[in-house]
C-alpha cells in the first residue's frame, strides 16, 4: 500500500470516529465497506490497530476504547482537533482531498480556494529548520525600488490568509518576518545555529491577530459589537483565540478580545464595514472612524 493510500485511510478513520462520537469496530467496518477504498474487503483488527497507532503518532489524536460502553471507540483528546497545528492543517487538507477525490463526477461543481504552496522556497526553509542551518535571502518589499540581502536563522513558518511567511533571526539578533512571495532567491548555507530553548512559535504570535508582531503596540482589552449576521460569523470563526462573547441581544452581540491592535487587525475591522463597531478602547474606535472617513473622502473625489 502506498503512503498516500495509508493517509487516506487514516483520515477516513479519524473522521468516521469523530462524527460517530462512539462506534464499535463492527460499525466501522459497515461504513468501511461502503467506500471504494475497501474494495469489498473488511478492515482487519490488526490493520485497525496499526492505523490507530499511526494516527496517534502522526496527528496526536488518541483513539481509545470504552469497554463499559460495548467496546466503542472514541477520540479521548478531542480538544486537539480545535488547535492551530500542523497536524490539524494536514487533517483538514487531506480530508477535503479525500472528499473531492471520491466525488470526481462533481469536479466542475466543487470550487476550491487557491493556497500557494510556497514552492521550492518552502521546501528549502523547512530543510534549513530541520538541520538548524542559516539561509541567505534576496528579498524585495512591495515599496522598495531594489532588492535587499539578508542572512538569517529560520525559526518558524506560518500560513496566514493564503500566504506563507518566514520568521527568522537576523545577524543583529532581531526577529523579522518575510513573505515567501516576495523572496527572489534563497540559499541554504553551511553555517549552523542553535535553536533557542525559550522560543515558542505559538507564544511568538499569541498576542497578534495575524502575522504582524509589534511589541510597541500595547496589549489591550478590545470590545467590538457585531450586527446583523456578523455575530454568527464571529462565533463560527473567532477573530482571536482570546475572543469571548460577553453580551447579546436580538440586534447585536458584543465580543471581548485581548491582543495588540496592529495594522492587520485594524484592516480586518475596517473590512467588516457597518457590521462591526469598536466599543473599547476609545482610541482604537477613533482610529477606525478616521479610516472610514478617509475612505468616504476618497470616494467623494
- Report mean pLDDT, rounded to a whole number: 87
Task: Supply the number of helical segments.
Answer: 9
Note the run of SSEs as H and E: HHHEEHHEEEEEHEHEEHEH
| Fraction of helical residues | 25-40%
* Largest sheet features: 5 strands, antiparallel
Proportion of beta-strand residues: 25-35%
- Physical arrangement of strands within the biggest beta sheet: 6-5-4-3-7
Q: Low-confidence parts, pLDDT < 50 over ≥5 residues?
A: none
Shape: globular
User: How many angstroms separate the termini?
Assistant: 64 Å
The number of distinct β-strands equals 11
Q: What is the CA-atom radius of gyration, in angstroms? A: 24 Å
SS class = alpha+beta
Topology:
Elements: H1 3-20, H2 25-32, H3 45-59, E1 63-66, E2 72-75, H4 86-101, H5 119-131, E3 133-139, E4 148-160, E5 163-170, E6 175-179, E7 183-192, H6 201-205, E8 220-227, H7 230-236, E9 244-248, E10 252-259, H8 263-271, E11 276-280, H9 282-300
Antiparallel strand pairs: 1-2, 3-4, 3-7, 4-5, 5-6, 8-10, 8-11, 9-10
Amino acid at each position: 500500500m502506498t503512503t498516500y493510500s495509508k493517509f487516506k485511510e487514516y483520515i477516513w478513520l479519524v473522521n468516521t470516529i469523530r462524527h460517530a462520537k462512539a462506534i464499535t469496530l463492527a460499525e466501522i467496518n459497515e461504513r468501511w465497506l461502503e467506500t471504494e477504498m475497501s474494495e469489498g474487503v473488511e478492515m482487519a483488527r490488526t490493520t485497525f490497530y496499526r492505523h490507530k497507532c499511526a494516527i496517534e503518532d502522526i496527528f496526536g489524536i488518541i483513539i481509545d476504547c470504552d469497554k463499559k460502553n460495548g467496546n466503542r471507540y472514541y477520540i479521548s483528546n478531542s480538544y486537539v482537533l480545535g488547535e492551530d497545528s500542523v497536524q490539524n492543517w494536514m487533517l483538514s487538507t487531506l480530508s477535503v482531498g479525500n472528499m473531492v477525490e471520491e466525488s470526481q463526477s462533481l469536479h466542475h461543481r466543487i470550487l476550491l480556494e487557491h493556497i500557494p504552496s510556497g514552492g521550492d522556497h518552502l521546501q528549502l526553509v523547512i530543510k534549513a529548520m530541520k538541520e538548524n542551518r542559516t539561509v541567505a535571502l534576496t528579498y524585495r518589499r512591495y515599496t522598495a525600488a531594489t532588492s535587499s540581502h539578508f542572512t538569517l536563522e529560520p525559526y518558524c513558518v506560518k500560513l496566514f490568509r493564503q500566504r506563507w511567511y518566514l520568521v527568522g533571526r537576523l545577524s543583529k539578533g532581531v526577529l523579522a518576518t518575510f513573505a515567501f512571495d516576495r523572496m527572489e532567491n534563497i540559499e541554504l548555507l553551511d553555517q549552523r545555529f542553535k535553536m533557542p530553548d525559550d522560543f515558542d512559535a505559538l507564544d511568538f504570535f499569541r498576542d497578534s491577530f495575524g502575522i504582524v508582531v509589534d511589541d510597541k503596540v500595547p496589549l489591550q482589552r478590545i470590545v467590538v459589537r457585531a450586527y446583523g449576521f456578523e455575530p454568527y460569523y464571529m462565533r463560527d470563526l473567532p477573530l482571536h483565540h482570546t475572543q469571548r462573547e460577553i453580551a447579546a441581544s436580538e440586534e447585536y452581540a458584543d465580543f471581548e478580545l485581548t491582543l495588540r491592535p496592529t495594522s492587520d487587525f485594524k484592516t480586518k475591522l475596517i473590512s467588516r464595514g457597518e457590521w462591526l463597531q469598536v466599543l473599547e478602547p476609545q482610541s482604537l474606535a477613533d482610529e477606525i472612524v478616521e479610516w472610514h472617513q478617509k475612505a468616504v473622502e476618497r470616494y467623494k473625489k
